[in-house]
Design goal:
Oligomer: heterodimer
Number of strands of chain B: 26
Number of strands of chain A: 5
Radius of gyration of chain B: 27 Å
Strand order of the largest sheet of chain B: 3-5-1-12-9-10-11
Shape of chain B: globular
Number of helices of chain A: 6
Strand order of the largest sheet of chain A: 2-1-5-3-4
Structural class of chain B: alpha+beta
Helix content of chain B: 25-40%
Largest interface: A-B, 66 and 67 residues
Strand content of chain A: 5-15%
Largest sheet of chain A: 5 strands, mixed
Helix content of chain A: 25-40%
Order of helices and strands of chain A: EEHEEEHHHHH
Number of helices of chain B: 20
Strand content of chain B: 15-25%
Radius of gyration of chain A: 17 Å
């Protein structure tokens, strides 16, 4: 089959029943996409198909033919190709916010957040929570993930990032 | 304690440059870009895939396993059964009761029976269907009370104690006298259900056995060193011919701290086939492999004086261990030994019994053995406060361990920020103005806890260092650190990087960390008991301080100045008396290499002698204790019985917060995990011994929508023995979340939830059992007790 992944057209030979997740990981070596459950429960395998998030463990590889697949590896590469350096702003925000503890769920999480911000550049916290609710994280309690998205949003708007509970504040009572 | 193990609290070069700042993690960008390599991301040429045949019976004799037909399937390279790996293992040397594949018996649904290696996963799965295992089912124990009362058939036939896995009875002071003299006594039953880790990465292992007779195992483990020892024992290979490597790890929480069947199976299959072999557990297999939180039936009796001073505590605990021992001996001790702070009480007794049942084996989950008793006791403290008409925070405040105190069971407490933790959550939550005044259906609850920063008790008795570090200084200005520590996402390698940069006056990118590779790194005992930052951190400071002298001397001689004028600062070396003079650290390394030869150093840490002078007195003895207080705010829907946890204030005393970003992440992640256990998660089997829902959908992990607002408030009581004063942050902050939630429900609607999990059904039942009061009456009753 012919797949377009992160801009590259790739010819892949794989059994018909192989999922997009299997082909990405075990044929193309794009192991940034993770398997946490293999049945669509955890969201770790999220990739973008024509800009929409899909669960690659529930998508047959053949179904991706004729579509643009974007994986986590493609995000930083696109950023560099566009003249940037290192990782893109959202990935860097996740890193700077401490959202990457074990990191296993975060490629899916970052791609889900990426789609949200593409459609809603300035989402409310409730909107961010809803948009990420298909991606389970076991380390962070989502707090630093939400802070990462808030940081990316603030920086895109030139605003200071919201203060976190543990940071020294102007008044003690403000912690509530 | 060796003098070299106390490194002081001060910044090494005048002021901290990295410590205390919210730094990025050493592997953050690799994880954010998908470049980080986890176990299942590895592939080797010619690699085979392995699968496990598992028992469909909770308890049975294995009469035969017929493998011939499976072996004949094209693409199958090897099949192994219990006879191929008969040597027993177990994480504790005293209770080695597991084999990689069943020998003679299976003891839970999912117990591994045979393993197959084939050219691909599909062929391996097809081969499993061709294996014929015959069983003779035995009586299955699914209720721990039955295991206590009945021992025939025994789950482990060679044990004198029948189905009892471990019993610990310890008494300190006159408990009966103390309770008789108390003004108020509360006695009640509590139940903590089973829960599991559910790290998003399933267990995975890959083995290669070379023609040179060297075995390499890459595994998603948090205990590289113990796994290394177990492999040598089970495979009958000298340990120096085995290399164990932990790749990047996708979460563990205690769930990867036993040696697991797949690690032995891939090694054996690689030895038999001469080809690399990988096995990846399915999510369902991870649920059966388990080693999660032990269900506990707890009975507590506590007494207090009229003014709220605790007089004595009496506990009786039955622990459901599942099919194997795992860490159970330690769990049984921890269920009593870790309760003796942050409150001071003069008399204490506990009687804890762990029994075997035919269920997935339990083990250590974040807050090992002490989350369950902490839940019961902190709810009981709230009941005492109610009975004495005292504010629950005030009751806790009246029982603080005094500074420099020893606990009733003989544990030394060096630093203690609990009073500040209570004050922080009290203020941040608006406790004084809001508790009891939020109206019917909404409430606040408090709880506290204390936890270990590692223990002085290595898992096998030895006097070797618990943590070792090796440094290599390169003339490029780079320092490579070899650390045995297991970074499981909590950031151990980031802490190592930060501490080396601080001690040697470097920038962070001048320090690289090679970790958790038994060929390359000195031994560290692993990621458990919250020991990493404390012990590895101290080993890092020890190693670095051996190099600071030669580095300073070489520069001082070069400049012909007093060594006191030389200061290493973020990659530069400056002369304090002459700002015009400076070198790069690379130049300084070269001067030192010219003067002293190739530069390197080792460092280590071991604990001082700790613990009470009685059998078991060293279990739970820690060089330093962390402290936590939570206030949780809930609303309760009295129509549906649903509890909505809205926010949690988490104050945690972690000693010096080396990297507050990592500390906050641990605090928030801990609180999330505890609250999820209270409200959503349940790990249990049905009457056939089958897991009730071995998937990430049925085992209800909270999503971003279900998780409350988590507010981390960091408290820093500098510990005299921690690295720059640091203590643990990874497990302590989980403990109070569950009792604080129960106590908040009491404030909201006046019911005491003592049996976990707090399902809508239990809430409705408890509400109905309340005396018929109108809502206003209920609200008044639920107010300040």
């Amino acid at each position: 089959m012919l797949l377009r992944v992160n801009g590259d057209l790739q010819e892949v030979d794989a059994p018909d029943h192989w999922t997009l997740l299997e082909v990405l990981r075990y044929r193309l070596g794009l192991t940034g996409t993770k398997q946490g459950c293999d049945k669509g429960d955890c969201g770790a395998c999220t990739v973008l198909l024509d800009g929409r998030p899909v669960l690659s463990c529930l998508t047959l590889a053949r179904e991706a033919e004729g579509h643009e697949v974007l994986t986590i590896e493609g995000l930083a590469a696109a950023h560099v190709a566009a003249g940037g350096q290192g990782a893109d702003a959202l990935q860097a925000a996740f890193d700077r916010s401490g959202a990457l503890q074990c990191g296993f769920c975060q490629s899916g999480m970052i791609l889900s957040a990426c789609v949200l911000l593409a459609h809603h550049p300035s989402p409310s916290e409730a909107e961010v929570r809803r948009a990420l609710s298909g991606n389970l994280c076991r380390c962070t309690g989502y707090t630093q993930v939400l802070q990462a998205v808030a940081l990316a949003v603030s920086e895109a708007c030139g605003q200071p990032a919201p203060r976190r509970a543990w940071e020294p504040g102007p008044t003690a009572g403000e912690e509530r | 304690m060796a003098a070299r193990d106390r490194h002081g609290l001060e910044a090494p070069w005048g002021q901290f440059r990295h410590v205390g700042r919210p730094l990025r993690k050493i592997d953050g960008l690799a994880k954010a870009t998908g470049a980080a390599v986890y176990a299942d991301d590895l592939s080797l040429p010619g690699m085979l895939h392995a699968k496990t045949l598992r028992s469909p019976h909770p308890h049975a004799r294995v009469l035969s396993v017929e493998t011939a037909e499976a072996r004949r399937l094209p693409g199958v390279l090897a099949v192994i059964t219990g006879q191929d790996l008969p040597v027993r293992y177990g994480i504790l040397p005293w209770t080695q009761d597991e084999t990689a594949l069943a020998v003679g018996k299976v003891r839970f649904v999912g117990d591994p029976v045979a393993a197959v290696a084939a050219v691909d996963e599909d062929t391996a799965n097809a081969a499993l269907k061709l294996l014929r295992a015959e069983y003779e089912p035995l009586h299955a124990y699914l209720d721990p009370f039955e295991s206590l009362a009945r021992h025939d058939p025994a789950i482990h036939e060679d044990r004198r104690e029948g189905n009892v896995s471990k019993r610990v009875e310890l008494a300190f002071g006159d408990v009966e006298g103390a309770l008789a003299a108390a003004h108020a006594v509360v006695e009640d039953d509590y139940f903590f259900h089973g829960t599991t880790h559910a790290a998003i990465e399933p267990h995975c292992a890959l083995a290669r056995y070379g023609a040179d007779g060297l075995l390499t195992l890459w595994s998603s483990t948090q205990i590289t060193h113990y796994l290394h020892r177990a492999l040598a024992r089970v495979l009958g290979l000298p340990a120096h011919r085995i290399r164990v490597v932990q790749p990047c790890l996708g979460g563990a929480f205690g769930g990867k701290s036993d040696p697991f069947s797949l690690e032995f199976c891939v090694a054996k299959l690689a030895m038999l086939t001469g080809r690399p072999v990988k096995m990846l557990y399915t999510r369902e297999e991870v649920f059966y492999a388990h080693r999660g939180r032990h269900p506990m039936h707890l009975r507590y009796r506590s007494g207090a004086t009229r003014d709220g001073r605790l007089t004595g505590v009496d506990a009786r605990i039955l622990i459901d261990g599942g099919a194997y021992s795992s860490y159970g001996l330690v769990t049984t001790y921890y269920s009593g030994q870790l309760l003796t702070g942050p409150y001071d009480f003069p008399a204490y007794r506990f009687d804890s019994t762990r029994v075997f049942t035919n269920k997935p084996p339990c083990g250590p989950k974040r807050g090992h053995g002490s989350v369950q008793p902490r839940f019961a006791f902190e709810v009981q403290l709230d009941q005492l406060a109610e009975k004495l008409a005292l504010d629950p925070i005030e009751l806790r405040r009246r029982n603080l361990l005094p500074p420099g105190a020893q606990t009733v069971n003989g544990q030394r407490v060096t630093s203690n920020g609990f009073a500040e933790c209570l004050a922080r959550v009290e203020e941040a939550s608006g406790w004084r103005e809001r508790r009891g005044r939020l109206g019917f259906g909404r409430g606040l609850g408090v709880a506290g806890s204390m936890y270990i920063s590692g223990t002085n008790y290595p898992i096998y008795p030895n006097k070797l260092p618990q943590s070792g570090i090796q440094l290599k200084l390169d003339r490029s200005g780079l320092v490579t650190v070899f650390s045995g520590g297991n970074d499981i996402g909590q950031g151990t390698n980031s802490i190592v990087q930060e501490l080396v940069a601080e001690e040697l006056g470097l920038q962070l990118d001048q320090v690289r960390v090679v970790a958790a590779d038994t060929d390359l790194c000195p031994v560290d005992l692993g990621a458990y008991s919250s020991r990493g930052t404390f012990m590895i951190g101290n080993a890092v400071l020890d190693a670095c301080r051996k190099l600071r002298g030669p580095l300073v001397q070489a520069v001082a001689e070069h400049w012909q100045v007093d060594p006191g004028r030389v200061r290493f600062v973020e990659g530069s070396v400056i002369d304090l008396a002459d700002p015009a003079r400076s070198l790069s650290s690379a130049e300084a390394f070269q001067l030192a290499e010219e003067r002293f030869d190739t530069l390197g150093a080792t460092g280590s840490y071991n604990t001082p002698a700790l613990g009470g002078d009685y059998r078991g007195g060293t279990i739970g003895a820690s060089p330093a204790y962390s402290f936590t207080a939570h206030v949780v705010e809930v609303s309760v829907d009295v129509e549906t019985g649903r509890i909505n946890c809205e926010r949690a204030w988490i104050a945690h005393d972690c000693g010096r917060a080396l990297n507050p970003l990592l500390v906050a992440g641990q605090m928030e992640g801990s609180a999330y995990m505890g609250l999820a256990e209270a409200l959503l998660e349940e790990h249990d089997v049905n009457r056939f011994g089958l897991h009730r829902g071995p998937s990430l959908l049925d085992y209800r992990l909270p999503t971003s929508v279900d998780t409350p607002e988590l507010l981390a408030l960091i408290v820093e009581s500098l510990d005299p023995e921690g690295p720059y004063g640091a203590k643990e942050a990874g497990e302590g902050p989980l403990h109070p979340s569950i009792p604080a939630l129960s106590n908040a429900v009491f404030d909201a609607v006046g019911i005491r939830l003592r049996h976990l999990p707090f399902t809508p059904g239990k809430v409705l039942k408890a509400l109905r059992a309340r005396p018929a009061l109108n809502e206003a009456g209920l609200a008044a009753g639920a107010g300040r007790g």
